[in-house]
Design a protein that fits this description.
Blueprint: E1 2-11, E2 18-27, E3 35-37, E4 40-43, E5 47-49, E6 55-61, E7 67-74, E8 76-78, E9 84-86, H1 94-102, E10 103-106, E11 109-112, E12 117-124, E13 133-144, E14 162-178, E15 183-195, E16 198-209, E17 213-220, E18 229-236, E19 242-248, H2 251-256, E20 259-267, E21 275-283
Parallel strand pairs: 5-14
Antiparallel strand pairs: 1-2, 1-14, 3-4, 4-6, 6-12, 7-11, 7-13, 8-9, 10-12, 13-14, 15-16, 16-19, 17-18, 17-20, 20-21
């Protein structure tokens, strides 16, 4: 997830005081290949660990200046609308806390010159007593703002000056799977809805099993090979058994979804792209 972490307010009269205000705003990642926020490029944007062997995530500073990033693990829980909400460690479940204990990574802070890649090694803490199942934490890559230069003292006639510096970060899921984990999904209750932006195509995704599912939603017309719409990066995590998937409808797409349509949920291409579930319906 791309997350706007906050803004630093710099008061330059008579001196600079930096305050960071947190505003959790999330945007779904479109794929698992690479994603950028601010000047940070990350690949891949989803990590699955299912054995003793670790992996790595590659960071790249695509900006024009040196930048420093802090790397931490956080807990997030999916709700019935598919949104990921922050979880306080005091309110975390045993399984959520186990994810934090299981995942190991290094380094935890990097400084990157422009166009300089850096690998973050990710592995597992050996724990044979860990019950079979899926465990998940979210790795947050947060930019550390540079210290603002000391401002000259303001004259009594000058007004208060405020400098706003956005602080960005990217959050990716790190998923640990142990033992026999399986899941299936069913799509149901296709309907036309509405949100603050306008009409939507909505349906319920029902999951069973002890692992998450992740893939793409294709909206097609029978007999037409080209999809009307593709939504990538659609996940449903083990903490919920049902979520609503909502697809914004542009005027052009809204005109095409009336009548008979097919909604298909496929695995992500890198996982094989197999069909997970499908529903056929007629919309008025």
């Amino acid at each position: 997830m791309f997350k706007l972490l906050g803004k630093a307010w710099c008061l330059t009269a008579p001196k600079c005081v930096a305050l960071v205000l947190l505003f959790p705003i999330y945007f779904a990642l479109p794929s698992t290949s690479a994603h950028a926020a601010g000047d940070l490029l990350i690949a891949p944007t989803r990590v699955v660990l299912d054995g003793r062997r670790g992996t790595e995530v590659i960071l790249n500073n695509i900006g024009d200046e040196e930048a420093t990033y802090r790397i931490t693990l956080e807990l997030r829980r999916m709700n019935a609308q598919g949104r990921l909400d922050d979880v306080d460690i005091e309110k975390a479940t045993v399984q959520e806390k186990a994810a934090l204990d299981a995942i190991r990574y290094a380094p935890r802070r990097v400084t990157l010159p422009p166009n300089q890649p850096q690998s973050i090694r990710i592995g597992l803490q050996p724990n044979d007593a860990l019950p079979d199942g899926e465990y998940r934490a979210h790795m947050l890559f947060r930019a550390i703002p540079k210290a603002a230069p000391a401002a000259p003292a303001a004259s009594p006639t000058e007004g208060l000056k405020i400098q706003i510096i956005p602080i960005y970060g990217i959050s990716i899921p790190v998923i640990v799977r142990k033992g026999n984990v399986t899941a299936t999904a069913a799509l149901a209750n296709v309907r036309i809805g509405k949100d603050n932006e306008g009409p939507t195509l909505e349906f319920d995704m029902n999951r069973s099993g002890n692992r998450s599912l992740f893939g793409e939603v294709h909206v097609t017309k029978p007999g037409v090979s080209e999809p009307l719409h593709i939504s990538k990066g659609i996940a449903i995590y083990p903490e919920i058994s049902q979520r609503v998937v909502s697809i914004p409808l542009s005027p052009e797409l809204a005109a095409k979804v009336h009548g008979e349509i097919v909604i298909s949920y496929y695995e992500a291409p890198e996982a094989g792209g197999g069909l997970i579930s499908q529903v056929r319906t007629v919309l008025p």
